[in-house]
Amino acid sequence: MTSNIIKCDDVKINKVNYTKPEKNGQSYFSSISYGDGLNPFYIQTPKLICKTNISEMKGKKVPYLDVEVPSGKMNIYDFLLTLDDNNIKKTVQKSEEWFGKHIPLQAIDDMYRRTTKPFKKNTPPQIRLRLPLIKNEIKCGVYNQSRIFVGADEVKEGSEVVLILHVRGLKILKTTYYCDCYITQIKLFQEKESKFNIIKDYSILDDEDEEEDDIEDIFSEEIQNSFKEEKSQKEAEMNAQKEAEMNAQKEAEMNAQKEAEVKAQKEAEVKAQKDAEEKAQKEAAEKAQKEAEEKAQKDAEEKEKKRIAEMIQKKKQELLELEGLIN
Fold it and tell me: Does 257 reside within a domain?
């Protein structure tokens, strides 16, 4: 695997290969490889700044990682920009081979969804990259700078990371297409552990009687009261925060339930309307068919009457001619 990974500065864009798109479910997919050996296309980024907590991506259908490109690391942004341009160029060049007709550059450019987004002057660009999702679980190898495997939840906003990207190919939908690229591995730069393990909170096990005596002997009643007030205030704040969180959760659940009810009602109305339209169409078709059958029957009866009338007239004429001959 290591030999297949290329730093973004070392990529030669003319060595990027594309296959003819093949149908894959409701879309088409053109695989991308690199070099004469048609190797999987893995890219290593420079050190970037993470803008997302991976823990907050759990449960999302399309989890992602937003990263900020720091000053002096624009090579990754430039590479993705060049890759986007090359994807568009190759699609135009191969449009007749892939789609059976020439598609102009403007149409392809309008359809293509770029990986890179424009950014304001004097503002570092940000890039959104997809995280792989397997059976509703984010599957991405995360190692720290000591090459120790750590959990994905350790990747948090503000972390410095180096990413390995897998550029899989072009995913072509009905009205748009884009470069299917995802993060396959992350190097996370964690703070180095201190030589000393300092406990932040007060952790000494005091004797209760001794503690009370010490407080009575050392601290004045005014200070004791201030401690009690501070403790009461802290407890009140914690209780208020807990109550606010519970209320917020309850409100979110109620909103979700309401949205579900509205959605169900809307779906029921749409289904009822669709059923009514189908029933009306069926009745109209049956009526039209009945009218057509009645008209056909009426035409047949009229035709038969006319035939009989003509035959009677012919018989009358023959009788008259026979009577003339006899006389």
Answer: no
- Residue 21: Cβ within 10 Å count: 20
On whether the CB atoms of residues 141 and 161 are closer than 8 A, the answer is no
Q: Which helix (H) or strand (E) holds 113?
A: strand 112-113
**What count of residues does the chain have?**
327
In a domain? residue 177: yes
CA distance 29 to 99: 13
> How many domains does the structure of the chain reveal?
1
Residue 194 lies in a domain: no
DSSP string, 49-90: EE-S-GGGGTT-SS-EEEEE--TT-THHHHHHHHHHHHHHHH
Domain extent at residue 167: 2-189
Q: Residue 26 maps to which CATH number? A: 2.40.50
**DSSP3 helix / strand / coil % (the chain, rounded to 5):** 50, 20, 30
Eight-state DSSP code of residue 316 = H
Tell me the C-alpha distance between 196 and 26, whole Å. 58
Three-state DSSP state, 116 = coil
For the whole model, what pTM was predicted? 0.57
Any domain includes 87:
yes
Residue among 168, 194, 195, 164 at smallest CA distance from 179: 168
Q: Each residue's pLDDT tens digit in the chain (327 positions)? A: 555 899 999 999 999 999 999 998 889 999 999 999 889 999 999 999 999 999 999 888 999 999 999 988 899 999 999 999 999 999 999 999 998 999 999 999 999 999 988 888 888 999 999 999 888 888 888 999 888 999 888 999 999 999 999 999 999 998 999 999 999 999 999 876 544 444 545 556 665 554 444 434 433 444 444 445 556 676 777 888 888 888 888 888 888 888 888 888 888 888 888 888 888 888 888 888 888 888 988 888 888 888 888 888 888 887 887 777 776
Displacement of CA 253 from its chain's centroid (Å): 23
